[in-house]
Amino acid sequence: MADDALIVFTPSGRRGRFEKGTTVLQAARSLGVDVDSVCGGRGLCGRCQVTVSEGEFAKHGITSRSDHVTGWNEVEERYKTEGKRAFKAGRRLSCQMRIVDNAVIDVPADSQVHKQLVRKRAEVRDIVMDPAVRLHYVEVDQPDMHNPSGDLERVQQALREQWGLDKLEDCDLRTLQHLQQALRQGNWKVTVAVHRGRRITAIWPGFRDRAYGVAVDIGSTTIAAHLCDLQSGEVLASNGIMNPQIRFGEDLMSRVSYAMMNPGGAQEMTAAVRQALNDLMAETAAEAGITPEEILNATFVGNPIMHHLLLGIDPTELGGAPFALATNSGITLWAAELDLKIHQDARIYILPCIAGHVGADTAGVALSETPHLSEDIVLIVDVGTNAEILLGNKHRVLAASSPTGPAFEGAQISSGQRAANGAIERVRIDPETLEPRFKVIGCDLWSNEEGFRKQTRKIGVTGICGSGIIEALAEMYMAGIIATDGTIDGAMAARSERVRQDGRTWTYLLNAGEPEITVTQNDVRAIQLAKAALYAGARLLMDHLEIDQVDRVVLAGAFGSHIDVKYAMILGLIPDCNLDKVSSAGNAAGTGARIALLNQASRDEIERVVHGIEKVETAVEPRFQAHFVEAMGIPHTTAPYPRLRSAVPLPAPKKATATDAEGQERSRRRRRREHAPTQE
Q1: Domain membership flag for residue 369
Q2: Does residue 480 lie within any of the structural domains?
Q3: What is the pLDDT of residues 3-22, one digit of tens each?
Q4: Are 385 and 441 part of one and the same domain?
Q5: Which residues neighbour 445 within 8 Å (Cβ) at sequence distance 6 or greater?
Q6: Going by C-beta distance under 8 Å and a sequence separation of 6 or more, which residues neighbour residue 58?
Q7: Tens-digit pLDDT profile for residues 414-455
Q8: CA–CA dist 218, 224 (Å, integer)
Q9: Quick one: which of 352, 291, 293, 345 has its CA closest to 325?
Q10: Is residue 245 part of a domain?
Q11: CA angle 562, 576, 506 (to 5 degrees)
Q12: Range of the domain at 82
């Protein structure tokens, strides 16, 4: 009608005419404008903040002023003095102000339902906030003897009328058992949690505006959790613990063997990981100042064996070809089904597995790094006890796994330890003197800098973690201490006392203090075996794509995020690539779990994506072994690595000239005897 006011919403550009007196929130909803609200327009949650634009807007043909809406009322006045909830300058509640005349209304990003949670890494897409569990505040009609209806049905009716939830299916029994009490305690005003717009999973008396979820990455060695606010997407607390299943075996196959050889072994490992998850969630919730019972949604990723053990499925079938999964689909469960001590009707979503030994953790990496959307060919390596590898672009994506073992995480290394205070994480070796300097976690100084000993007095120098051993070996290679085949060259003992004999082999003394930290020949071999398996898996995928080089390399995983990419390539962990095209993605699997937690549409997306990923089984590929053998060299036995050589002055290939320490000592004694003066 002619007397109606023209309202334009920015940044969406949606516009329409509305009867004067209509609330701005009502106008926004009728146009499908994205404005957040938990309380349904009652002024309780403070989420529907907007700004009335001032000035002439020729593009829209209107003049907009602050007095083209009603003034502040008592509800809004409260927000002027409510500390954290106080409005930013110029903000108003769209549910409280009514239309008086034409206006341009701006909806800030933090007032949008599907707001973007900007991630720190620019190369990865932002997370669009659309959690699977949402809170809805409703006012429910009281019982009426003349219009008989159950309390649940009237709650559902309120959700349909006040929130447009017309696809409600049912209510969880445990929630139904508390529903009547909540309604009466709240004087028929309640907050309802709804999972994916269909199922009521929780109900509280009165108004509640906070819902929490947790994203969990169950790794073979460590378990990491991120507790998030499901309204804002903010990570409120993050924590990690060692996976207690390590006591049943350090690598995946040893855990499968434990399940096969010990009746009830799988159940033991399931119980161990579930207890660890409960401990981790309780600790993380306490850090965020909430109780575990307030966690309404959780997402999980993990390799297939971790996936099966979490679900209580015996992983024996994954111990040999054809490596059959019990299921590779995404799964939605109640928390109680996994014995998790969070909200009794919390929903758990476990991302799909891809195949055999490429699991939900790789699906999380794919969701985070989106190789299926890439224009160029990207190699993504999730470095861990079992390395998962993705290769491809928007036309085709391949996947494989390589059994690297726990060496990258400090296990099987003589002075190895997990990344913790006191662990050596950075190493440099002077190529002339062969003297080392290093950094430890918990101290910013190098070991040769003044004040290092004082700063590390409490934490000490306790061992060497994965990133430290990688740098140590690469620096030893660059300094000539290690030959191309990985042998520690005993001839270097003539230049430095740090190169020491150790039985029939040699070692390098990295730290002469207490404790002594050395790099042994067995340490070098352990890393060679791990890196050769990783490289061979990547090279095998390149064979299947019929390519000789990749455009980009992304190192993922907790370990991958701490590796200096230059040293990773010097050792030959990954195929040759321009160094500026090699990056770290952090815990991409955990990020994928967080995306799935905060954006329900991504769950449907990853279900589609994994069905298009082609699995290459390294265990039955004859070329894998050939690639593995050649990859034992540093950086490689035959691959020339021209891009690396253009950036780093690699030493010329060499063979160790003194490899048998005992033999060298015998030769020295013999030479001394031969040249000793004879007694007259």
Answers
A1: yes
A2: yes
A3: 899 999 987 778 899 999 99
A4: no
A5: 439, 451, 452, 455
A6: none
A7: 888 877 788 899 999 999 999 999 999 999 999 999 999 999
A8: 7
A9: 352
A10: no
A11: 65
A12: 5-113
